[in-house]
Specification:
Distance between the termini: 35 Å
CATH class of the largest domain: Alpha Beta
Number of domains: 2
Largest sheet: 7 strands, mixed
Order of helices and strands: HHEEEHHEHEHHEHEHEEEHHEEHEEEH
Mean pLDDT: 93
Structural class: alpha/beta
Number of helices: 13
Radius of gyration: 22 Å
Oligomer: single chain
Bound molecules: pyridoxal-5'-phosphate
Low-confidence stretches: 1-14
CATH architecture of the largest domain: 3-Layer(aba) Sandwich
CATH superfamily of the largest domain: Type I PLP-dependent aspartate aminotransferase-like (Major domain)
Number of strands: 15
CATH topology of the largest domain: Aspartate Aminotransferase, domain 2
């Protein structure tokens, strides 16, 4: 058996929209990668590719993982990777023992709670979560995953505003289900899927490196929103990531304050999707805290379940608690006691270990180390980020800013070979998202691996 790569698919590498979310799994570099994998793993990858539906970005897979701990995932051949991707679930590291012990106890007591009943774990967690958020944000719904929470938020926005049109960013991802892609903007997920009714209206996201208005001021990006809000009274929600996870785009405070004011002025609900970036990632518990604004609805997930339990939450303003006659979620695993225990323990661990502050200080260290690489390697066009979320944008030429797509893939696979895992987004942005439990020494180790790969790519 074994996985036989399909050479004809390589043409899709020219399809740039496929590269927005992550590196593709049928590129020439991926085929080369399979040559350095051991026979047993190739056998397993083949079995996986034979039984799972193939889809972009996931199956066929990169490697077979056997275990994980802290910042590492380990494959079946015993090779360890520092995981700087982790699908954003690993803020407190993998297999965190503080959480595991609490979950074991919950397993022995109440692992599941049927809908129509509640449980103390869920109540306690809901109270804990809302205690961390600004006062008005105190109505919670849980769901088994981030995409489902996005769906609930969109439904709630319709109930609250009586309007059903949504604005989002171009190339935005808010989950892969039909309702989530109908709100988002990423071509990768929309191909073959339309039409959507209504089509979401997409505005350009603030971009500090390729500012379409020139200069560094990103406030002008809000103009497009204002025009839309003014001309279309049917718009009920603006959904956006506060800080874009995939390419680590960090808007200015002026931008977000203006957007917040516009949403209020035009009765448009501001739904912030912090599914990948909440819980300390950006150096604050929630990313919106950097901006002195409050969302109307916040969507949370991923690391919420501590990298163990699939768990997500929507938190909305108390005044929106007006949908008692419809089902917004109705999920089988809604008030999950296991999810609630994992989430409570995750937050306790973050607090006990001061991981939010740690993300700030380690983020400064990582940012400086990456900027040092930028002075050494002209291929690095931009280094940007906040807390422990960083993007390193590779270009062929710093003046034209032409994307160095092949080089980005080459760097990624060279790093994988040397035990550092991350993903590439937008085709040329190395996205670095390490667990918050990482040490400075481990960060330096990762930077050294990256430097070696950049050196190789620069000499090609
Ligand atoms: C910004 C954003 N929103 C929503 C989701 C969907 O979350 P989930 O895959 O847990 O459903 C993701 C997942 O990657 C995401 O990055």
């Amino acid at each position: 058996m074994g996985y036989v790569p399909c050479a004809t698919k390589l043409r899709y590498m020219t399809d740039e929209h496929l590269l927005t979310e992550g590196d593709v799994n049928f590129s020439a570099h991926r085929q080369e990668w399979y040559k350095v994998i051991d026979g047993n793993t190739i056998q397993l990858l083949g079995e996986d590719a034979d039984v799972f539906m193939h889809q972009s970005l996931s199956t066929p897979c990169l490697d077979v993982i056997a275990s994980c701990e802290g910042i590492y995932i380990t494959d079946t051949a015993g090779k360890r990777y520092m995981d700087f991707h982790g699908n954003n679930v690993h803020q407190i590291g993998y297999r965190n023992q503080y959480v595991v012990e609490k979950l074991k106890a919950q397993m022995d007591l109440l692992p599941f709670c049927p809908r129509r009943y509640t449980n103390t774990a869920a109540i306690q967690f809901a109270k804990k979560l809302t205690s961390l958020l600004p006062g008005p944000l105190n109505r919670v719904l849980f769901a088994p995953g981030g995409t489902s929470v996005i769906g609930m938020a969109l439904k709630l926005a319709r109930v609250v505003t009586g309007k059903y049109k949504v604005v989002s960013y171009k190339d935005s991802f808010h989950g892969a289900s039909l309702d989530a892609i109908a709100a988002g903007g990423e071509g990768q997920f929309k191909k073959y899927m339309g039409p959507f009714n209504p089509e979401p209206q997409n505005v350009a996201p603030p971009d500090s490196y390729r500012n379409i208005f020139g200069g560094t001021n990103d406030e002008k990006y809000a103009d497009e929103l204002e025009v839309l809000f003014k001309t279309d009274p049917g718009i009920g929600a603006f959904i956006a990531e506060t800080i874009r996870n995939t390419d680590a785009q960090v808007p200015t405070k002026a931008y977000w304050q203006r957007v917040r004011a516009l949403c209020t002025q035009y009765n448009v609900l501001l739904i912030l999707d912090e599914i990948p970036i909440a819980f300390g990632r950006t150096g604050k518990m929630f990313a919106f805290e950097h901006y002195g604004i409050e969302p109307d609805i916040i969507c949370l997930g991923k690391g919420l379940g501590a990298g163990i339990i699939p768990f997500a939450a929507m938190v909305a303003k108390n005044e929106y608690n007006i949908a008692a006659d419809v089902s917004l979620g109705h999920y089988t695993h809604e008030k999950s006691p296991m999810g609630s225990v994992a989430a409570t323990a995750m937050l306790e661990y973050i607090e006990q270990e001061n991981l939010v502050e740690k993300a700030q200080t380690l983020g400064q260290f990582l940012g400086q180390a990456l900027r040092n690489l930028q002075t050494r390697y002209p291929i690095i066009g931009d280094v940007r980020g906040i807390g422990l979320l960083w993007g390193v944008e590779l270009v062929k030429d710093r003046t034209t800013k032409e994307k160095a797509i092949a080089a980005a893939e080459q760097v990624m696979y060279a790093c994988l070979k040397n035990g550092l895992s991350f993903k590439v987004s937008q085709g040329n942005v190395l996205q670095l998202c390490p667990p918050l439990v990482i040490t400075e020494q481990q960060l330096q180790e990762a930077v050294d691996i990256l430097a070696e790969a950049l050196e190789e790519a620069s000499n090609k």
